[in-house]
């Protein structure tokens, strides 16, 4: 096998700057935005001009110059921090950048997905639709539908999609070479054509704590050997999910730390068995005790469909049926009970961290309020103590108090 030739600073250029690179650090890991930290010397006449020219939309590219003069992308992302410092008359540029997926992790949003038959691929498309150029490749869902009421609530798109990926015990992997927010939903395991990893140095460790957490959170079929990690220093280029052989074992690239230091570009790879990528299902703790406002668009029995206020639209036929916490007219929870009418305002209350366990409560009539005397005149006492909205012999759910927290729609904006 041909040994990989190490890159040097002469083989690397950084756009859009005229810079002689001294040091580069690139970190890549599942569920995290890739990061870049670089320093280098710039011409004296440029001084602090690079600070002024760099803004929130400036793309930072790190390119390798190939043997034929062609450029090969190593990193493409957005500048987060840039500074110039002068040391004994020499000007140094320092840049911190992040993968383009960062734009998915800035604004908190609210959105419901009520159609249980919606494929996850459609949910992801809808979630990232307002980010120009954003795209993904699905390595996890195999066409599965969401199967339940699903809600993005005070979460960034990145936070929400990580939570969706955790339903498949996997995560998100940012693309680091394209000039847009592209990512893999699930790990892009690349089997076949396995390369042997040539190590400069290595060490091995076992993450027993991670195994204990995973084994107690419904991850079946895992063993502590799945949480063996090899940290291998090498000049060879690999990507997250690439299959390699090391120490006669088939392993996968879990994390990459690349560095240009002392003139040489090398990588420290964290390798693990495929099961070592598994994550347990996560939930949105922010919804515990929260409630959201909406209007009734359909009623059947003791269930209702609603159009949530912060959603732009909602088709009635694909809306989720929420159980309604009925208010009975008699103390023993029998007899007449009151259901909301179409266009009535209701709240969906979430007692726990699972959005599909929400219940509809507190119907509010559209009619103007009446005084006590008017109510007595228009609603005389019934001999049986009953109401007039419907009949049932079942039980009822106690309605929780009004949620005193800030309106989530305002919190997200």
Explain the overall architecture:
Among the domains are: 93 residues, no CATH class; 122 residues, OB fold (Dihydrolipoamide Acetyltransferase, E2P), CATH 2.40.50. By secondary structure, it is mainly beta. It is globular. The strands form five sheets. Strands 1, 2, 3, 4, 5, 6, 7, 13, 14, 15, 16, 17 and 18 form a 13-stranded mixed beta sheet that branches. Strands 21-20-19-24-25 form a five-stranded antiparallel beta sheet, with no helix packed on it. Strand 5 and strand 6 form a beta hairpin. It is built from six helices and 26 strands.
- Quick one: CATH class of the domain at 286-407? Mainly Beta
Sum up the overall morphology in one term.
globular
Count of DSSP H/I helices: 6
Structural class: mainly beta
Strand content: 35-45%
Helix percent band: 10-25%
CATH fold call of the domain at 286-407: OB fold (Dihydrolipoamide Acetyltransferase, E2P)
Main pleated sheet: 13 strands, mixed
- Tally the beta strands: 26
Separation, N- and C-terminal Cα atoms: 56 Å
Tell me, rounded to a whole number, the average pLDDT. Answer: 85
Radius of gyration based on Cα positions? 28 Å
In the CATH hierarchy, what is the architecture of the domain at 286-407 at level 2?
Beta Barrel
The stretches of 5 or more residues where confidence is low (pLDDT under 50) are 371-413
| The CATH homologous superfamily of the domain at 286-407 | Gp5 N-terminal domain
């Amino acid at each position: 096998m041909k040994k990989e030739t190490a890159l040097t600073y002469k083989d690397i250029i950084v756009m859009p700057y005229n810079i002689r690179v001294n040091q580069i650090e690139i970190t890549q890991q599942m569920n995290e935005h890739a990061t870049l930290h670089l320093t280098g010397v710039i011409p004296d006449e440029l001084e602090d001009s690079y600070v002024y020219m760099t803004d929130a939309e400036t793309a930072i590219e790190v390119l390798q110059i190939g043997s034929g003069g062609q450029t090969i992308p190593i990193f493409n992302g957005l500048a987060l921090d840039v500074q110039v410092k002068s040391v004994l008359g020499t000007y140094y540029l320092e840049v911190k950048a992040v993968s383009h997926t960062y734009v998915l992790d800035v604004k908190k949003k609210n959105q419901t997905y009520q159609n249980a038959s919606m494929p996850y691929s459609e949910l992801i498309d809808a979630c990232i639709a307002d980010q120009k150029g954003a795209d993904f490749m699905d390595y996890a869902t195999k066409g599965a539908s969401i199967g339940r009421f699903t809600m993005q609530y005070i979460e960034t798109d990145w936070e929400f999609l990580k939570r969706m990926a955790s339903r498949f015990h996997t995560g998100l992997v940012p693309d680091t070479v394209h000039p847009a927010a592209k990512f893999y939903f699930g790990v892009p395991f690349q089997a076949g054509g396995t390369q042997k990893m040539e190590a400069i140095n290595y060490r091995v460790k076992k993450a027993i704590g991670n195994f204990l957490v995973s084994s107690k959170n419904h991850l079946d079929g895992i063993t502590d050997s799945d949480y063996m990690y090899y940290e291998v220093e090498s000049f060879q280029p690999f990507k997250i999910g690439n299959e390699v052989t090391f120490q006669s074992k088939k392993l996968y690239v879990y994390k990459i730390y690349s560095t240009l230091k002392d003139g040489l570009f090398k990588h420290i790879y964290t390798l693990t068995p495929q099961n070592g990528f598994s994550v347990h299902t996560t939930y949105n703790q922010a919804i515990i005790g929260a409630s959201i406002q909406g209007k009734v668009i359909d009623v059947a029995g003791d269930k209702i469909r609603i159009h949530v206020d912060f959603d732009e639209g909602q088709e009635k036929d694909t809306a989720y049926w929420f159980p309604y916490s009925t208010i009975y007219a008699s103390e023993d929870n029998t007899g007449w009970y009151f259901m909301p009418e179409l266009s009535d305002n209701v709240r969906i209350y979430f007692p726990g961290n699972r959005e599909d366990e929400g219940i509809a409560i507190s119907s509010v009539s559209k009619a103007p309020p009446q005084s006590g005397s008017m109510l007595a005149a228009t609603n005389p006492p019934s001999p049986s103590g009953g109401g007039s909205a419907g009949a049932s012999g079942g039980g009822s759910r106690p309605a929780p108090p009004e949620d005193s927290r800030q309106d989530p729609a305002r919190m997200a904006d």
